Amino acid sequence: MVRGRFDLGEMIQYAVILLLPLTMAVEFRSIGTLYLHDFLSVLIAAVLLTRKGALHRLQPVVPFLVLLLIGLVGTIISDIYQATPVEDYSRAWARTAFFGINTVMIWLLTGGKWRLLGTYLFGVGLALTLHSLTTSDSLISSDPLKFGVGIGISLMIAGISVLPFFERPEVRRAIPVLLLVLALFCLFRNSRSIFATLFLALCFAMLVLYVRQYPKMAAKITPSSFAVLLIMGFVGAQLMSAAYGWGADSGLFGQAAQAKFRAQTAGDLNFLLAGRTEWLATVQAIKDSPIIGHGSFAKDSHYVRMYFIELQRLGLSYSYDYYVRTYGFGIPQHSFVLGAWVEGGILAALVWIWGLWLVLRAMFHTLKISPVPVYLVSVTVMFFVWDILFSPAGAEARVVKAVQICILVAAMPAAKKLRKPKAVAGGAMPRGAARRRG
Fold this sequence. Notes:
- By secondary structure, the protein is mainly alpha-helical.
- It is 69% helix and 2% strand.
- The chain has a two-stranded antiparallel ribbon.
- The longest helix has 32 residues, at 336-367.
- It is globular.
- The N and C termini lie close together (11 Å).
């Protein structure tokens, strides 16, 4: 390849990686919602697995694949025990299988290389944004910023942060400025979770960049000091939450934010828990069947009635009739890890518990001046944690989470051996190396 220019093979590779996520726009309604992306992933993964050394290159994602398989076994056991209807368990099993296949395909296609992973993440963000702006789904179209556009643009910004262009001194601050502007826009448009996620991502990124200026400080970061930093971060998040509560209650962020905040804090819960009240039923369902679970897409009118009785007791007002019309008698859930636990028991939850451990390891190695692109990893970390703890798993998760897992795995020391040459600490590659990489 001529130095400073892409050869044809590299251009095709980048084009495929950029356009492949956009095939999520083609949906099939059979076993739930399937994407053209799912079927293409099967074909591409099958081709890539035939290449020499493919199994060796897969080693960094093997722990995830093993735990995902264990979770699938747990879900199958739960579905057999609970006699789950075929239309429900077929959707859940297919969802898990495509999740694993997507991860394998993305890892092998990108080779764990930052520019390729960033390109794929950009494509995923673009797909989410376009879907939110064009969908006929009434919930998403009622607030596209909250239900797709905000997240999509966040992923797009994180994706482009690995480009050598943003290493230039005159544009080096463009990425944090873009993320901050988007965060503030979401705050004043009442998309609180996106604001919080981006704000925390920026805080972590600033900490990493500060530490990287002082190698001696980075050398002193141990698991113990890292734990102290996490505690300080948690305290800071609580202060941020309190500051938001004051601002929302005083009307600083607009009347809509004020009305929503006052409605959610009218009862006995703080606004974070009041905004994710499904945990009231989810936790009880887990207590009742922690090992086996309740089956895929579990339905039980007992937990729905209990959920609304608890809401009433806590002084929160929600419509029972609207919930039943919209969701039927599905057990309320609003968390990847708790939702998996409800459906497939403890075995199904293990992969997401491991996901939280993966996040901690990725953050630790990023702080230790590992050659990791800071904004790509920071945004990925915060959205990944938020979804595991506080978001329901939609159909798009098997693609979004697949690329995010690949990014987090790429931050591990074991993955560095697969990447040559190395990336620079700030986020992009050295100029010469960036031209040579694929």
